[in-house]
Amino acid sequence: MANMEEDRKLPGWVLPSVGALAVILLVAIGLTKGPADLDPETPEGTVQLYIQALVEGDFETAASYWATEACLPDSITPTGGAPDVSASLVSVDGNDIQAEVVVHLTESTVDPMGGLLEYEEWFSLVYQDGSWKIRQPSWPYYDQTCEERA
Amino acid sequence: MIAVIPVILFLVVVGGLIALGIRLWRGRSEHKVEGGLDLIPYLLLALAVGVAGFSLAQLARASLTQGIAGRPTSEIAAALAGLVVAAPIAVLLWRRQASRRKLFPHTPGWPVYLGVVEVVFLTAFLVAVGQLADALASSVGTDWPDLIVYGGIVAFHWWAERREPPPGDPGEIPRLVGSGVSLIALAVCTIGTLTWLLSELYDSLGGIIDVPEPAVTVALLVAAAPIWAWRWLPAWHDESSTLRNLYLSIVTSVALTMAIGGTVTIVAVLLTFLFGQAGPAETHFDLYPAAISIATVGGGLWLHHRRRLGPGRTGALRAYEYAMAAVGLGTLVGASVALINAAFEPQLAGSNTGEVLIILGCSVIAGGAVWMWFWRKVQVAPRQDEIHSLQRRIYLIGMAVATGLTSAGALIGSLVVVFRALLGEGGDMASSLRFPLTLAVVSGVAAWHLFNQVRADGAGIERLEIKPFSVTVVCSHPGPLASLFPDEAKTRVVYRADEAGIIDDEMAAAIVAAVGHSSSVVWVDESGFRIAPARES
Description:
Strand content of chain A: 25-35%
Order of helices and strands of chain B: HHHHHHHHHHHHHHHEHEHEE
Helix content of chain A: 25-40%
Largest sheet of chain B: 4 strands, mixed
Strand content of chain B: under 5%
Oligomer: heterodimer
Helix content of chain B: over 70%
Order of helices and strands of chain A: HHHHEEEE
Distance between the termini of chain A: 78 Å
Radius of gyration of chain B: 30 Å
Structural class of chain B: mainly alpha
Number of helices of chain A: 4
Structural class of chain A: alpha+beta
Number of helices of chain B: 17
Shape of chain B: globular
Radius of gyration of chain A: 22 Å
Strand order of the largest sheet of chain A: 1-2-3-4
CATH architecture of the domain at 43-135 in chain A: Roll
Number of strands of chain A: 4
Distance between the termini of chain B: 55 Å
Strand order of the largest sheet of chain B: 2-1-3-4
C-alpha cells in the first residue's frame, strides 16, 4: 500500500520546474505585451495618450491635452522630468460633458531598496472643442504660480 | 460609548489568549511534545510562502492585465527578485518540515503554519473577489490574476491539510481561522446585501436614501458562504476544545452585541420620530435598512453559535456570559457619562437636541439591561466552580482595572481644572469639570462594585477552603497519606492486625483525591480502598 502511494507520488523536481516555467512564461508575456488599445475619443483614451506622451518625454503633446479653462502650470515640463511609470485603468465615471478617470500608477524609486511606489491618480476631464481635455493636471508635479482653480 | 466596545473586545481577546497560554503552559509538562514546538521553521516557511505568493501575484498582475501606458518592467523586476529569494527557501523548508512531520507528527508548528497561511491568503483571496466584482461592475479592467494566485495558494494548503490532518486541539487552528475570516466576510457582505435590498424597498416606498452598489457585497457573499460552510459546518473530532470554546464565545458575544446594537438603533429612531424630535419621515428612517440588516445578521449568527456553546455550564458559555456582562457594563458607563453631559450641556440657542438624548437614553437602558441579565446569570451559577473560573477573574480584574484607571485619570483631569481655578486661571469651571467629573464618578462606582466583588470572591474562596474535615483510615500502614491531606484535614489511623492494607504513594494520592474535602472513613485491604462518608465532627 505504502509502495503504491510512493509510486503515485510525483518526483520532487516536477512542481518546482512547473512553477519556474510558469514564472518564465509570465515574464515573457509581461515584457512583450503592449498597452491596451483604447479609443482616443473617450476620456480614458485621452488619459492614456496623455500619460504615454509624458512617459516618452513628449511634453508638448502632453500639454496639448490640457483644458484651456484651467489654471495652467508655468512650464510644460514636469518638475521631475519624464515620469518612469506604468499605468493601468481603475475606473471611468462621468457623462457627455465631464468625466473622472482613475488610474493606478506604479513608479520605481531611485533607491533599489526603496521598492515600488504605487498610487492612484484622479484625472478630471472636460469635453472641449470636440475632444476630451484634462483639467488642472495634478500629476505629474508641475511648478505653478497661479492659485485660482477653475 | 462606541470607543468602549473595542476596548472591551480587546480585553476579552487578550484575556482569552492569556487563558489559552496558561492552559497550554499547564498542559506542557503533562504531554511533553516530541520534537519540540517546531514553530520557528514553520514561521520562516510562512514568511517565505508569503513573499513568494505575493510576488507571484504581482508578476501575474503585471504580465496578464492590460496597462494603458508604460512597460511594467519595475513590477516584473520587483516580483522576480522576491520570487528568486523566497521560492527556493519555501520549497526547501516545505520538504524539510514534511520529513520532520513523519518523525514528530504531534508538533504544533504545522497547524500554526496552516493557520497563518489561511488568515493571510484567505483574506487576500476575498479582497481579490471584491476587487474583481468591482472591476466587472464598472466595466473597466479585470483584476483576476490575484484571484487565481491567492485562491490557488489557499486551495493547495487545504489539500495539504486534508492529506496530513494536524492532530489534537491545535489541529483545529486552520479550520477556526478559516471559519473566522470567512464568517467576517459573510457577515459584512450579508449586511451589505440586505442593506441594499432594504434601501431599494425604502426608496420604492417614497423614502429618500442613498442606495449602495451591491456588486462587491453580493460577490463576496457568494464566495464567503461556501468557504464558511466548508470550514465550520463539518463535524469536529472532539466534543469541545479550548480554542473552539474561545472562538465560539467571541463570535456569540459579538453576534449578540450586533443584534442588540441594531435593535437599539431601530427603537431609538422610532422614539425620536414619535416624540417629534425628527426631521421629515422620508429621510428620518434612512438608518433602518442598515440597522435592520445588522440586527438580523447578528441575531442569525447568535442563534447558530449560541446552541453550540454546549449543554451545561461549559467554559465557552461562561466566557460568553462574562464577555456580554463586560459589554453591558462598558456601554452603561460610557452611555451614562455621555447622557449626563448631553442633558446638562448649555445650548447657545434653542433647547437640547432630543434625538441625541433619546439615543443615549436607549443605550443606557440597553447596556444596563444586558449587564444585569448576564451578571445575574453568572451570580446564580454554582458558587464553588464559578469563583475559581478564569473567565470570572479576567472579567472582574480586567474590568476593575479598566474602570479604576479611567476613574483615576478622569479625577486627575478634574483636579487640574480645580487647581487652575484656585490659581486664578481658567474660565467656566462648571463647564470644564462636567465631563471629567462625571466620568470619574460613574466609572468609579463601577470600579468600586467590581473591586468589592473581587474581595467577596476572595473571602468566598477562603470560606470554601478552610472548612475542616476528618478522615478515619483503617489500614495496615498509612504511608505518606497524612502528609498529602490539606491542613484542614484531621486524620486518624486505625491499624489492622495484618499486612493486607498497606498504603503506597500512588494509593495515597488516589485516596486524597477521592476524599476531597469531606469527612470520610477509608477502608484499605488487599483489593484496594473503599470510602464511606462520615458525619462531620
